[in-house]
Design brief:
By secondary structure, the protein is mainly beta. It folds into 3 domains: 208 residues, no CATH class; 70 residues, OB fold (Dihydrolipoamide Acetyltransferase, E2P); 55 residues, SH3 type barrels. 9% of the residues lie in helices and 40% in strands. The chain has 5 helices and 29 strands. The strands form 6 sheets. It has a 16-stranded mixed beta sheet that branches. Strands 5-10-9-6 form a 4-stranded antiparallel beta sheet.
């Protein structure tokens, strides 16, 4: 008998987590700074490289008022030479050696190319150094092709349903008294430097803005207003991957949009590890190549490691709805009818009957995900 498999969010207290670290550059330009077996901290730099500097065009022919073909002979520097800002790099012959015009470099860098057709120089700014840290405390277990560093850690692993903002590291600080509490400005600490604040069912925009002002690096909450998200970002969030937003912190929603009580298991885990160091990432992609926001809390407590296995969707499973009109709601699977049914879009799909707080509703199987522990 065929099984229905629905991707799920993981919420587990102790598991093995592997993080692959890779820079977006050619392998030949990537320098690996660690070795297999080495223990690393989240802030340790594991990879270093350089991106080519920006190209700056400079029309020497126009500036000296000469023909393009004369430009190469008027240069005081040649292709590949290093140059400094305000250094004279070209000079006209003038009249009887007098009244010479000069062209100064607008940048520090080098001369990339010279064109006798256009009379232009292409200047290249210095390379831009880029570095990548370990992101999590752990141990280097593999280095692949001199460009990918795999780091293993063990501990809490919690996936959210939506997030914005990239990778950051901070200390878990639970500021709500229950998983259904709404967080306002009153609950935000006056000093939350380097903290990942944990709320309940909702955080208001003003509270989030105050958290940013007071130094928080992250916020984990059950829900957030979709309208306030637009105000926070300054634009309507589309379907593209998130994680590059510069809003001052990383925001992770564990349940969805609106005021939604944080799942009790998620809340209790975060509360248990209050004060622990956490690595979080808000990057989200719901469509092909699913990426979920995450909270990783490394620890070495003696807890049996959970086994993450793929199984078929079954009656009794806890699921979360990931599309309207029940987006973000959590319920129990009552039954899985085998026959296809016509839904609102007039498509024939396999459905399930789900109990949402006492209300039994029909939902396409593709519109839910299993909440796994």
């Amino acid at each position: 008998m065929a099984h229905s498999y629905t991707p799920g969010l993981r919420v587990t207290e102790f598991t093995t987590i592997i993080k692959e670290r890779q820079l977006p550059t050619e392998p030949s330009k990537t320098h690996v700074l660690v070795t297999v077996g080495q223990k690393v901290k989240s802030t340790d730099i594991v990879l270093r490289s350089e991106l080519a500097g920006n190209v700056v065009p400079l029309n020497v022919a126009n500036l000296l008022q000469v023909s393009p073909q004369d430009v190469p002979s008027l240069l005081l520097k040649k292709e590949g030479d290093q140059i400094t800002k305000d250094e004279v790099i070209a000079e006209s012959k003038g009249l009887f050696g007098l009244f010479k015009s000069q062209v100064k470099s607008p940048i520090h860098g080098s001369i990339e190319s010279v064109s006798a057709v256009t009379g232009q120089l292409m200047l290249r700014e210095p390379p831009i150094p880029i570095e990548l840290n370990a992101y999590v405390d752990g141990q280097v277990v593999q280095i692949t092709d001199d460009k990918v560093v795999s780091i293993e850690t063990k501990g809490v692993f919690i996936q959210g349903i939506f997030g914005v903002g990239g990778e950051t590291v901070g200390t878990i600080q639970v500021i709500s008294n229950s998983p259904n509490e709404v967080i306002t400005e009153k609950q935000i600490p006056s000093n939350c430097d380097g903290q990942v604040l944990v709320g309940g069912a909702l955080v208001t925009l003003k509270a989030l803005q105050l958290a940013i002002k007071n130094g928080a690096c992250g916020f984990v909450t059950g829900g957030f207003s979709n309208h306030e998200l637009k105000e926070l970002l300054g634009y309507e969030q589309g379907v593209a991957i998130t994680g590059t937003e510069q809003i001052g912190l990383t925001l992770i929603l564990t349940e969805g949009f609106g005021s939604i009580t944080m799942a009790d298991r998620t809340y209790q885990l975060l509360k248990k590890y209050n004060g622990y160091k956490a690595s979080i990432n808000g990057a989200t992609q719901i469509r092909a190549g699913v990426i979920r926001p995450e909270v990783v809390i490394p620890h070495t407590l003696e807890i049996a490691e959970s086994k993450h296995t793929i199984k078929g969707l079954e009656p009794g499973d806890t699921v979360r709805v990931i599309r309207e009109p029940y987006f973000g709601r959590i319920g129990k699977v009552i039954s899985l009818p085998s026959e296809l049914q016509v839904v609102e879009s007039e498509a024939k799909v396999r459905i399930m009957i789900v109990d949402l707080d006492g209300e039994q509703v029909l939902i396409p199987r593709a519109n839910v995900e299993i909440i796994e522990s």
